[in-house]
Amino acid sequence: MRAALLDAFDGDVRIVEVPTPRPGPGEVLVDVAACGVGLTLERARTGALGGSTPRVVGHEIGGVIADLGSGVTGWAVGDRVTTSFYLLCGRCTWCAGGRETLCANWGGFVGVHVDGGLAEQVVLPAHGLVAVPGDVSLAAAAIAADAIATPYHALTARAPVRAGSTVAVIGAGGGVGVHTVGMARALGARVVGIEAEPGKAERLLELGCDLVTGPEDATDLPWPIDVCVDTVASRDTLAAAVGMLGRAGTVVVVGFQAGSAFELDPRPLVLDEVVITGSRYATRAEIAAALDLVAHGKVPPVIGARFPLAEVAQAYRAMQDNAVFGRIVVEVDPA
Ligand SMILES: [Zn+2]
Questions:
Q1: What is the per-residue pLDDT across 36-62, written as a single tens digit (0 to 9) for each?
Q2: Which of 180, 270, 275, 334 is most buried by a 10 A CB count?
């Protein structure tokens, strides 16, 4: 089969012919229809997420089960599925307690620590799968598994948004950003999009932002911010996020980068009871909930560009250039 292989960290992915993998006990083989390409893949490429090479990359997967390994129950050949990005034990207190992304025996990431889905086929652990509703395309399902499920977790579990809340999204035009805007709208919030690329403003307004501004103007907003989701998480954006909060507001950091430590004045923590927290990916139940919101038209999947598997290098370049509004999807067309 054809697969996008990362030979070594900091190298470029390239399409190669590799043996078709076989599902072991508890695993399934999936025919991949689509796989999302976001900035996480760039961090995987540089080695920032750990793992090892050579590696077939890609984790935002939509596909159809083609074969079952021994001992797999509850799934059948032909089922439409997506998967958790995380390799979970399924047995620890965190997994059992509904906070599985904090798994005590976490095994790493799909596409980083085991081969991923930018390929014609992928082997996945059956217990990481999530069923895709019939009215959701497999390309939409692929991005729902991360770019839509991540804001669902952030805005329902980490900083619950109520109708009438005001939510600011830093990096609103990125793959997670646009879906955080959509999720906040679906939850009934007023939304401020903060985006450094002025060319993305119009699309963000169409998506339902009440206001779009550049980061330099984010200190003077017309509303106090109840929840600020920082998808950029640089030193500057983190400081700005805290600064724009209203009383009892919450900053939710989604993702992080090295060297972004920032100084914090503790006064607003006490005097305004502001909260600064983070949000780590999403559970399988939250992926299912995100798929449900897509199925019911509540959160539109924003696919900004589509590439065939043969053009995975171009897909990476578009992602690295931050040139695409929303998520990039690679569509696999079996030869
Ligand atoms: Zn666990």
A1: 999 999 999 999 999 999 999 999 999
A2: 180
**Separation of CA 73 and ligand 1 centre (Å):** 20
ipTM above 0.90, yes or no: yes
User: What separation in Å is there between the alpha carbon of 104 and the centre of ligand 1?
Assistant: 5
What average pLDDT does this structure show over 168-176? 95
Beta strands, E only, 195-240: 211-213, 225-230
Among candidate residues 297, 299, 286, the one with its CA nearest the CA of residue 327: 299
CA distance 253 to 274: 14
Distance 24 CA to ligand 1 centre (A): 20
Distance 28 CA to ligand 1 centre (A): 20
Rounded to the nearest whole angstrom, what is the distance from the C-alpha of residue 310 to the centroid of ligand 1? 36
187-242, pLDDT tens digit by residue?
A: 999 999 999 999 999 999 999 999 999 998 888 899 999 999 999 999 999 999 99
Mind listing the domains of the chain with CATH numbers? Answer: 2-146+282-331 (3.90.180.10), 160-278 (3.40.50.720)
Q: Report how far ligand 1's centroid is from the alpha carbon of 304 (Å).
A: 34
Is 70 exceeded by the pLDDT of residue 335? no
CA of 88 to the centre of ligand 1 (A): 5
Q: Residue 67 burial by CB count (10 A; 0-12/13-18/19+): exposed, middle or buried?
A: middle
